[in-house]
């Protein structure tokens, strides 16, 4: 399977989580490309059998639980047909102490449903840096689930 991981990060935790996912998928024999949201193009995404979107959740424009700001431009520049019928998985990093835990996942889901994507799974990670070992194990397990 060909997988495209598109991510954005503020404090590098989403980058680290995406790299763990990439390594787990590659170890299982999948071909994986990993790109930051601001550099992603339709040409990078179209060949993928599976697209994984990964983002922390933050306040953006005074609204809690939003994805990294680069994803707003990402969705604006991507033609809707890029996602039509495409398998997608959603990876969110957040903190359960906030009202909207991993709200980026909810924003992704809405955006992708509007584009007729097939959402096959989601993973929400709590406080990645404080629970790194547990989060890494969750990511490795999830890698097997989303590629069945």
Defining key terms:
alpha/beta, 5-stranded parallel sheet, two-stranded antiparallel sheet, 7 strands, 148 residues, 5 helices, 29% strand
Annotate the secondary structure layout.
Blueprint: E1 2-7, H1 13-27, E2 31-36, H2 42-45, E3 50-56, E4 58-60, E5 63-66, H3 70-77, E6 87-94, H4 103-114, E7 118-126, H5 132-146
Question: Could you explain the architecture of this structure?
Answer:
- By secondary structure, the protein is α/β, with parallel strands linked by helices.
- It has one domain: Flavodoxin domain (Rossmann fold, 3-Layer(aba) Sandwich).
- Helix content is 36%, strand content 29%.
- The strands form two sheets. It has a five-stranded parallel β-sheet, sandwiched between helices. It has a two-stranded antiparallel ribbon with strand order 4-5.
- Strand 4 (58-60) and strand 5 form a beta hairpin.
- Helix 1 (13-27) crosses helix 5 (132-146).
- The longest helix is centred in the N-terminal third of the chain and has 15 residues, at 13-27.
- The radius of gyration is 14 Å and the shape is globular.
């Amino acid at each position: 399977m060909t997988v495209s991981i598109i991510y954005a990060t503020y404090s590098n935790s989403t980058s680290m989580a995406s790299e763990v996912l990439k390594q787990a998928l590659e170890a299982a024999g999948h071909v994986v490309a990993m790109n930051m949201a601001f550099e992603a193009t339709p040409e990078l995404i179209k060949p993928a059998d599976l697209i994984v979107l990964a983002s922390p959740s933050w306040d953006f424009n005074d609204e809690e639980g939003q994805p990294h700001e680069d994803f707003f431009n990402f969705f604006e520049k991507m033609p809707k047909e890029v996602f039509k019928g495409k398998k997608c998985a959603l990876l969110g990093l957040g903190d359960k102490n906030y009202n909207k835990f991993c709200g980026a996942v909810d924003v992704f889901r809405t955006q992708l449903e509007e584009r007729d994507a097939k959402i096959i799974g989601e993973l929400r990670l709590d406080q990645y840096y404080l629970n790194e070992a547990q989060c890494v194990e969750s990511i490795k397990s999830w890698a097997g689930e989303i590629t069945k």
